Amino acid sequence: RLQGDWSSDVCSSDLEAQVRVTGFRIWPMPDVTVIEGTSQIVFDLDQYVDTLSTEVLWTHSRLSEVPTTIDPDTREVTMSPRAGFVGTRGMIFTAFDIDGGLTAADTVRITVLSTPRIVDFPDTIRFAEDSPYLDLDFDAFAEDLDHDVAELMWEAAPTVHMEIEINADSHIALFNPEADYFGAEEVAFIVADPTGLADTVLAVVDVLPVNDAPEAESLPPVYPTVGAPSMAIPLESILSDRDDAVSALQVFLEVEGGVRAEVADGALLVGSLQVGRGIVHITAQDTSGASASTRLVVIGLAEGTSVGPELEQLAELRFRGGQSISLDMKERVVDDSP
Q1: pLDDT tens per residue, range 59-97
Q2: In sequence order, which residues have a C-beta less than 8 Å from that of residue 170 and are 6 or more positions away?
Q3: CA–CA separation, 201 vs 206, rounded Å?
Q4: The pLDDT of residue 69
Q5: 153: number of CA atoms within 13 Å, CB side?
Q6: Which of 2, 186, 275, 303 is buried most, with the most CB atoms less than 10 Å from its CB?
Q7: How far is CA 191 from its chain centroid?
Q8: Residue 212 region by backbone torsions, left for phi larger than 0, else alpha for psi between -120 and 50, else beta
Q9: Cα separation of 153 and 111, whole Å?
């Protein structure tokens, strides 16, 4: 089957025939998708010509929304849809075979999309440590010409010291840093539309330090012997601070009864001056003025003595004959001995 212009000459004397065929056509051209406000090469017209002719002249119909050029040397087609235009248009491409004087045409469907944009996004997001931050609606920073902001999808790139979760429906972000973490970290935020087009912005997430007050432990009683050398209790077993070293804390002591106490070389030194009970009140204060307090009960013992356990008075118990009950005596014992 022959397509195009053709002719033949037949000689009846020798039953030989000469057939001369000329034809011209182009292959179907693809539909294209382009982005408004940008220029891109969409295809090479030479790929769609099916002809023996060496000279083909290409033209195209005009669209004001999608300015288009054909490179005369390479025949590459560049489309530059105007900023702000989205939609679908058709453009006719016509090929003219100069040698044969024939033409062929095809219509290309052009879809113009818009990339979502992140606008007016804050350079820095600040909040205090040890408290999740939930006060940033990302919809306020997005725009898209061909999709509603509710259709967009947000995500945050992985971070080192915090988790960032952006609600898929509300697009409100939850920033949850590690416990006790403070510092700044640069984070990439990405918004994408249903077609896969996306935009990215970088912002610094700055977690501000919050002073943590010192913490003081509840201490069991101690039982020094009167006149014996002082007992040494490391301050780190009594006090702690998330922000400061224990050695940086100011420690104040107040004593009651026949007790001696002082702080030296990172330890609380405690001794007894007389037999009986005394108390050391301990207060630690950090550089910001936050403080914590505890107390240490000191029982002064005479040399060679100790304090025995005591059993508290039991309430009257009544139960029926043949009935048995359980009683935990450990809860009834009072013992201050070491």
Answers
A1: 999 999 999 999 999 999 999 999 999 999 999 999 998
A2: 137
A3: 16
A4: 97
A5: 7
A6: 275
A7: 13
A8: beta
A9: 22
